Amino acid sequence: MFAHPDYVSLFARDQDTPIAVYAEEPGGFVLYPMILRPIDSDLAAAAEGASDLTSPYGYGGPFLSGTFGDAAGFWRAFDDWARTRKVVSEFVRFSLFDDQLLAHPGARDERLMNVVRDLTCDEAAMWADFDHKVRKNVNKARREGVTIEIDPDGARLDEFLQIYTTTMDRRAASKGFYFGREFFERIVRTLRGQFVFVHARHDNRVISTELALVSARHVYSFLGGTDEASFALRPNDLLKLELMLWAKQQGRRAFVLGGGYAPEDGIFKYKRGFAPHGLVPYFIGTRVLDADRYATLTAAHEHHGRARDAGWNPSPGFFPRYRA
Fold first, then answer.
1. How far apart are CA 242 and CA 145, in angstroms?
2. Tens of pLDDT along 173-213?
3. How far is it, in rounded angstroms, from Cα 98 to Cα 43?
4. Domains of the chain, each with CATH number or no CATH
5. What is the pTM of this model?
6. Which pLDDT score is estimated for 235?
7. What is the pLDDT of residue 324?
8. Strand locations in 40-183, DSSP E?
9. Measuring CA to CA, which residue among 256, 180, 212, 158 is closest to residue 10?
């Protein structure tokens, strides 16, 4: 799903270029989706014609199908191409499943843990593996008359958007999580069969909703929310269960719930209740391809930042530093 060109394009600005780096051998192929971004030419003379690479939001990296023996050759060819485009740096959000990826030559840093629900067990075993609180909440939602609707076409997009937006407001989410209507309409229009909306309904209205992304082997929780006035009905627990059962019926092997905003925060603990033994580390990858230009751009960025605000300091750990 995260290598689909229409998905990658969702996260490219007008000046950016969605690309795929592709290489093939008799035993398999590598498909590496990225976004090529121009670097602000006002930053420094070194930025003239320069660019960098980033993964789209989600889980990416150099996806591997089958076997690919000449990894070193792939990266040599990649770096040769990168030099022609004056690529300064590369930022990667890696898939959680290492068997999907060709090894990357950059730094690999562990971030937050993610929760993955194995779907290969039978339904009774999955139910027994849930935390007691999850089972209790599912049962309460059923007693209260909450029902679940699978919506593969985005027929209730208006209701989804209303709940999603109010949920982001309630959580004081960062600006980057406020995706507009056009974003979701593009998903519905261009990614048919690779998404599904799931709605929890009560008294003939949607009270909890989720958009999930569908890959060949996995389903990914993506974006959603719950009506605050309906928390007591526990609709999202039932929604998650029914979404997992739907994914299992579709032949998928795992359901990725994702992680939280910070280690052991409430969102992470909630998700962990559905798969207490399904914790998987999430990694990012970083690589500087042009060290001299990277240093020049970083120095210029920090100079400009402090010229605007003497007390400004770049966010620690942000990569690339010239975009901090």
1. 14
2. 888 888 999 999 999 999 999 999 999 999 999 999 999 99
3. 37
4. 5-105+290-323 (no CATH), 114-281 (3.40.630.30)
5. 0.94
6. 98
7. 94
8. 51-54, 63-66, 87-93, 107-118, 147-151
9. 180
